[in-house]
Amino acid sequence: MNESSSAPTVKDVALRAGVSTATVGRALGNYGRINEATKQRILELAAEMGYRLNQVARSMITGQTNTIGVVLADINNPFFSGVVRGMSDRARDYGYDLLITNTDENSEAEVRATELLLGRQVDGLIISPADVQQVKHITDAVQQGCRVVLFDRASSLCDVDAVISDGSEAVRRAVAHLISEGHRRIAIVVELTRAQEAEWRQPLLHTDERVDEYSLNVGLNRLLGYLNAHSEAGLEVDPALVFRSGEYSTASASAVTREGLLAPNPPTALVATDNTMSMGAYFAVRDLGLRVPEDLSLFLFDNLEWTRAVKPAVSVIEQQVHEMGVRAADVMIERIMNPDAPRRVHIVPTKLLFRESVGAAPSAVGTSR
Predict the structure, then answer these.
(1) DSSP bridge pairs for 346
(2) Rounded to whole angstroms, how far apart are CA atoms 347 and 345?
(3) Which of 47, 245, 284, 315 satisfies CB 3.0 to 4.6 Å to 258 for a cystine?
């Protein structure tokens, strides 16, 4: 054994095993052709000597780092933390580690995070794009040979795999249920922070063509489900019932919800498009002292613990968060192993969980509160 106080090197292991350093490199790096018995003997000697594989050196030889970069839109959001847990659990099964960055839903920060991870020579990138219309950095990464998987948002502007929930369809089903309960004034709390989304009626209502859902960011995509439910029921949409949050925050969602609920002819039901909008909307309903579901039925988004803890418990759209993370990791590993396979959008279904916050519409719709 090497008596030096320094850590043993590949050369030390080679001298002890009586083989070349190249043979030791193949055994420790698990690449190239080598006799299995020789490989096992080298591995045992290396462990006995306390040798630790230099991952940087290994990546230079094999071209792989066994790391996957993850670009999150909002690390504080329970949805994203749950997805990352699923990714991490599955990636570990394959011997991969995650390098995680956060963008706070900012496209410029996303570009910097992507460049940072590419500089770390990750084997692939899993990205939740802040804006599905601003993806040049993603297409550039693909052209450079990087494997990319989008999650939570798909973009029609880049030919990559994506793992998403059926959010638009989920909102459509929730609104359809409220309509079946007799509600005709159903409000929606939705985050539309980008300038081009302010006039949401133009791209969604004033067209005879089918809307490309993968050209829409999350809020606009789920608003489309709300509009589709009304269209299928033959109902007009009152634009005043679209409570548009211009910031992605509970405070903004609460403010626009409060304003909408205090307006003349208020809604009898309300849906929200993500967990941040849901929390803000609930604060407004609580602070106004409205009775749920007698005054207002609620159908919110994401099955977070608080929605079960409050009284009455809130009906929600549940995303299979952990499963989305597992699926994203699976798709990435498959892409690493088979770079030329056709790209696909993988849709993870949602569930409607019916609790106590949805009831029949009040008999006197529009009665002043």
Answers:
(1) 163
(2) 6
(3) 284
